[in-house]
From TrEMBL:
<dbReference type="InterPro" id="IPR001509">
    <property type="entry name" value="Epimerase_deHydtase"/>
</dbReference>
<keyword id="KW-0521">NADP</keyword>
<dbReference type="Pfam" id="PF01370">
    <property type="entry name" value="Epimerase"/>
</dbReference>
<comment type="similarity">
    <text>Belongs to the NAD(P)-dependent epimerase/dehydratase family. Dihydroflavonol-4-reductase subfamily.</text>
</comment>
<dbReference type="InterPro" id="IPR036291">
    <property type="entry name" value="NAD(P)-bd_dom_sf"/>
</dbReference>
<protein>
    <recommendedName>
        <fullName>Bifunctional dihydroflavonol 4-reductase/flavanone 4-reductase</fullName>
    </recommendedName>
</protein>
<dbReference type="InterPro" id="IPR050425">
    <property type="entry name" value="NAD(P)_dehydrat-like"/>
</dbReference>
<feature type="domain" description="NAD-dependent epimerase/dehydratase">
    <location>
        <begin position="10"/>
        <end position="202"/>
    </location>
</feature>
<dbReference type="GO" id="GO:0016616">
    <property type="term" value="F:oxidoreductase activity, acting on the CH-OH group of donors, NAD or NADP as acceptor"/>
</dbReference>
<keyword id="KW-0560">Oxidoreductase</keyword>
Length: 260
């Protein structure tokens, strides 16, 4: 498999994070060459990315690029020459430290900047965009056991009812809508994946936000909500992504009822 895919370059945005780093590992495993983007953190002189650079295959096939969603053009270099782009990076702030409008703007501007880079590159065959079950289950889907790709979360419902992670959920819903609208307008092949709470093994040094939220029983009002009863294991979640070269599925939910 490695031989078949050598020379196939893909981009993973947000490779430093929980899902992104696992995805980088899997793609390297599968023989892809991977361009990943990380943010520069001025406070940290040198960011320790050894958990990525020491992965099998990384020395030969992993390149790190610095990019920030606040500067959408900063992703151009990482996307250039890729056959596929996995957009994973997003502001994850369940404590709502920033106003929702700022989070949403950064998320949408960054995502659309990445899609524009994909169009300009002329080599990108498919974009796999990371949405979230939170873009689907709040509002119209709130009381039903099954949802499909026709469901969207209701922004007014989230704003009125959900304080824990509300800005994240609004931003995920509006960003996925903007991504789909852009892809339809410009004929770009985009698949969206919608993990629910991802729990399970991780290789990044930070305790993942979703695992922290899951443990935050005192403040997380979503514990007990159908949304948080459906968890996706890291491995299943990343499995959903590897649909890069398979027939097109439009919106892919990794929701499962099983614990990791
Ligand atoms: N984990 C879940 O349960 C879950 C469920 C549904 C959907 N998702 C989606 O999966 C994706 C990854 O989430 P995760 O759980 O892996 O979260 P994470 O560990 O916090 O990773 C988020 C990634 O985005 C990067 N990022 C944040 N703000 C950025 C900015 N302004 N510019 C560039 N990069 C930025 C982070 O970089 P730094 O390392 O510099 O912070 C990190 O690499 C997100 O799109 C999220 O919405 C996750």
């Amino acid at each position: 498999m490695e031989g078949e895919r050598s020379g196939r370059v893909v981009c993973v945005t947000g490779g430093s994070g929980f899902v992104g780093s696992w995805l980088v590992m899997r793609l390297l495993d599968q023989g892809y060459s991977v361009n990943t983007t990380v943010r520069s953190h001025p406070a940290e002189n040198q960011r320790d990315l050894s958990y990525l650079t020491s992965l099998p295959g990384a020395t030969e096939r992993l390149k790190n690029f610095t990019a920030d969603l606040s500067n959408p053009d900063s992703f151009n270099a990482a996307v250039d020459g890729c056959i596929g782009v996995f957009h994973v990076a997003t502001p994850v702030d369940f404590q709502d430290k920033e106003p929702e409008q700022a989070v949403t703007k950064r998320s949408i501007d960054g995502a659309l900047g990445i899609l524009k880079a994909c169009l300009n590159a002329k080599t990108v065959k498919r974009v796999v965009y990371t949405s979230s079950a939170s873009a689907v289950v709040f509002g119209s889907g709130n009381d039903v056991e099954e949802v499909d790709e026709s469901f969207w979360s209701d922004i007014d419902y989230i704003k009125a009812k959900i304080s824990y992670g509300g800005s994240y959920m609004v931003s995920k819903t509006l960003t996925e809508k903007a991504v789909i609208e852009f892809s339809e307008k410009y004929g770009l092949d985009v698949v969206t994946v919608m993990p629910s709470f991802v729990v399970g093994p991780f290789i990044c040094p930070k305790l993942p936000g979703s695992e922290m939220a899951y443990l935050d029983v005192d403040r997380n009002e979503l514990i007990g909500h159908p949304f948080s009863r459906r968890q996706a294991n890291t491995l299943d979640t990343v499995g959903m992504y590897i649909s890069l070269e398979s027939p097109k599925i439009y919106r892919n939910s990794g929701v499962s009822n099983t614990h990791a």
